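Q: Mind making up any chain with structure tokens?
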Amino acid sequence: MNRRTALAALALLALPVAVTAHGPAPLAMNGGTMAEASNDHWVELVVRGDQVTAYVTDPDMKPVPSAQLGGKATILVGGKREEVTLAAAGANTLTGKLAAPVAGKLTAVLALTIGGKSATVRFAVG
């Protein structure tokens, strides 16, 4: 692992975990992991094979229209970092494709635009 990759990995791991101001995370409806974004929206992350999918809901758990969504995901698996552009793909869904399938533990940071405002959310999966 080169120095640049190591620094990126440390930066991702050093980011604070989002504190859920609204109590425990709601149930993930698509088999993923739920986390609260920095703007109080809820995001469910699903990573299956090489597909990254994020489902976005408002603080009341109502779907946010995908026309109001955009962003990118930074995925860290086994010391390797990959950035994936997320594009609207359904009612409240953003998707992107990794260069290769992943399995097991991963860390992800999503930098999203929700209704024209920036939000970030961090996930530790597995």
About this structure: The first helix runs from residue 3 to 14.
